[in-house]
Amino acid sequence: MRILVFFDLPVLSSQQRKQYTKFRKHLVKSGFFMMQESVYSKLVLNATAAENVRENIRKNKPTEGLIQILTITEKQFARMEFLIGSTQTEILNDTNRLVIL
C-alpha cells in the first residue's frame, strides 16, 4: 500500500514557517519521500501499518493549514500516468525486495 500526504501550510510568520519545517522533517524522518513540493509518499506493508502511520501524522500535525492523506494500493500507484516529465529518484521504489545477509 502507499500513503500519500498532500499539504498546504501557511508560511507567513516565523512561527508558521517553523511548524511547516517541523512537519516536513517529521515526514522525511518517518520514511516519506517527496514526489512533488508538498506531496509525500510512503510504502507500507498492510492496512494496520498504514493506520499507524496515519495516526502518527495526526499526532504531529501543525495547528494551521490543510493536510490530506490518501491510502491506495501499490497496483493503483503503479498506474500513475506521467503527462510531462518522468520519475527521478535514487530510491528503490517498487515491490521487489533485496535482502543481503
Flag low-confidence runs.
none
* Helix content bin: 25-40%
Question: Which percent range describes the beta-strand content?
Answer: 15-25%
| Total of DSSP H or I helical runs spanning 4+ residues | 3
Domain count: the total is 1
The CATH class label is: Alpha Beta
In the CATH scheme, what's the topology name?
Alpha-Beta Plaits
Structural class: alpha+beta
Mean pLDDT: 87
| Strands side by side in the biggest sheet | 2-3-1-4
Radius of gyration: 15 Å
* Reported CATH architecture: 2-Layer Sandwich
Layout of secondary structure:
Layout: E1 2-8, H1 14-29, E2 33-36, E3 39-43, H2 47-59, E4 66-72, H3 74-78
Antiparallel strand pairs: 1-3, 1-4, 2-3
Characterization of the model:
- It is a single chain.
- The model has no long low-confidence stretch (mean pLDDT 87).
- A 4-stranded antiparallel β-sheet has the order 2-3-1-4.
- The chain is α+β, with helices and mostly antiparallel strands.
- Strand 2 (33-36) and strand 3 form a beta hairpin.
- It has one domain (2-78): Alpha-Beta Plaits (2-Layer Sandwich).
- The chain has helices at residues 14-29, 47-59, 74-78; strands at residues 2-8, 33-36, 39-43, 66-72.
- The longest helix has 16 residues, at 14-29.
- Helix content is 34%, strand content 23%.
- It contains 3 helices and 4 strands, in the order βαββαβα.
- It is globular, with a radius of gyration of 15 Å.
